Amino acid sequence: MRKWSIYPSKTLFTSSLIDKQSSITIPSKSSHRFFSVRTSFSTSKHMETEPENKDESDQPISDQIFKSSPKLGSYKTGDKTFYSLIENYANSGDFKGLEMVLCRMRHEKRVFLEKNFIVMFKAYGKAHLVEEAIGLFSRMVDEFQCRRSVKSFNSVLNVIIQEGLYYRALEFYKHVVNAKHMNILPNTLSFNLVIKTMCKLGLVNDALGVFREMPIRKCVPDVYTYCTLMDGLCKENRIEEAVLLLDEMQVEGCFPTPVTFNVLINGLCKKGDLARAAKLVDNMLLKGCEANEVTYNTLIHGLCLKGNLDKAVSLLDRMVSNKYVPNEVTYGTIINGLVKLGRAADGVRLLVSLEERQYCVNEYIYSTLVSGLFKEGKSEDGMKLWKEMVEKGCKPNTVVYSVLIDGLCRVGKPDEAEEIFTEMVKQGCIPNAFTFSSLMRGFFEMGNSDKAIQIWKEMSNGNYICNEVCYSVLIHGLCKDGKLWEAMMVWTQMLSRGWKPDVVAYSSMIHGLCNAGSIEEALKLFNEMLCQESKSQPDVVTYNILFNALCKQSSISRAIDLLNSMMDMCCDPDVVTCNIFLTALREKLDTPQDGRDFLDELVVRLFKRQRTLGAINIVEVMLQKLLSPKASTWQRVVRELCKPKKIQAAIDKCWRNMYC
Hints:
Layout: H1 10-13, E1 24-27, E2 34-37, H2 40-49, H3 64-68, H4 79-92, H5 95-107, H6 114-126, H7 130-144, H8 150-162, H9 166-178, H10 188-200, H11 204-213, H12 223-235, H13 239-251, H14 258-271, H15 274-286, H16 293-305, H17 309-321, H18 328-340, H19 344-356, H20 363-375, H21 379-391, H22 398-410, H23 414-426, H24 433-445, H25 449-461, H26 468-480, H27 484-496, H28 503-515, H29 519-530, H30 540-552, H31 556-568, H32 575-587, H33 596-608, H34 612-624, H35 631-641, H36 644-659
Antiparallel strand pairs: 1-2
Family: Belongs to the PPR family. P subfamily.
Protein name: Pentatricopeptide repeat-containing protein
InterPro entries: PPR_rpt, TPR-like_helical_dom_sf
């Protein structure tokens, strides 16, 4: 989303009372030379270029001005001089000097202007001195007799928000607005800042409430108000409400900008609704808003997420034909799409093409390709690309190091990964949770659980950041190694530290309990899992663990009940599920069955629930096992597969495979 300045215009920060080209010539006390007192720009520059060992009299503006002024004839220090001093000290971050000037002005009963305070608020913001800015705001009236207005209020509010202190910002806003003695009425900018803060905190409903309050306060929402709210709604996956706001703003006479449309297009692309995103682009063009680089990049990213790489490349060509220059983000998105489709080699070719065109390829593109090559089993190519990256002067960061370590562990080379880890630390790159979890997983998979546990201890003792993924890897490895008691200890520690187990951690514990013969305990943990948030909900792997344990105990009826529950939870059976039940039906029943009717019924039920992909996957299993579906089931399959769009998609896929 477009960022806009929430400060008043630049003219508010610069003193209109001072001529930038004028200078005041003052004799120095310690020498008979002259030096010039200029405005903030010339003075700050002078201060930077002068050696630090100069005495006070050689500074561009110093206390000498006060001591010398009575001897300067007709010249007297006026308000303009003090305003210039405030601007100079604020721009240079000299807050002691600033307080000295304020104290002198107060002593001489000078006139304080609000714009001088706004300059100081901005300086405090740059120096990350939030409380000092708030304190100065509270001193304006009583100490300096300067009337506060909404301008200074907005400046301080912005300083707080820029530091990410969102709750403090809301507290400050409520305090000032509700204080009758301050008599400050918020304007549109104030509301925009509060709405932005609430959206940052995920309080979108509260932000909408503030938005509805604006007309009551006689403030008209502008395009930034609507953009901020739309962005907040899209991040909460409330796309429909965001689209309704687009209609509302046009009815209210507030015309959308390309930024407005880009926010909605981005939300729709992330949701996967590319058809509506395309329609919104058409609407955008009809409203006279031209698609820009952000629009194209967003659409290309959405197409890559959906795997429509051909359309993404076509859109890239259209982008170039419309005289928009693709950047690293555009090509990085295309490369990421290629990697996700298992075409990392094509991504490397595109990388070479970019480098030949003098594009600046960053470390994130390299990390994507290195990761993709390792995942495709092309470890040698991955290492080669890594070396080329280093040779070309692209310094690897934590992300790239972590990707290489993960890749080496995936191909069964954790010892080499540990060497890279040592080099990473020597280069000053701090390992993260992904780095440690990759190393632990690598050693666990090689059967070296002692080494994996040692790495865990190094992470804990080194005060590195640990998350639920690290715990999941450790629990999974311990359970797989048969160390259920140790896994339970880690599980308890994870819960005590406030980390919520994910589906991997739950499934690993359930697997460990089942292997230990504690199926009832495993089912209790499974039922607890059903009450958790989405990332901890059971998947097909979890169900398969329980199916296998129940079927081994000849509890086939309980396994079938659990299968029905699984399908009600919109989780489709896979090849492993089919094999578990086929084995049980052949070996655990008094009258063995081949499982044909069982699988056929599963196909029919999935078709009735419009879960076509799951049904077709089971049909493929049946054909591999030489268990042909019934004629009526075949009819359903053929009817579904022979839809015109699906046929065309299958033909397109064949053509792509021929040319790739």
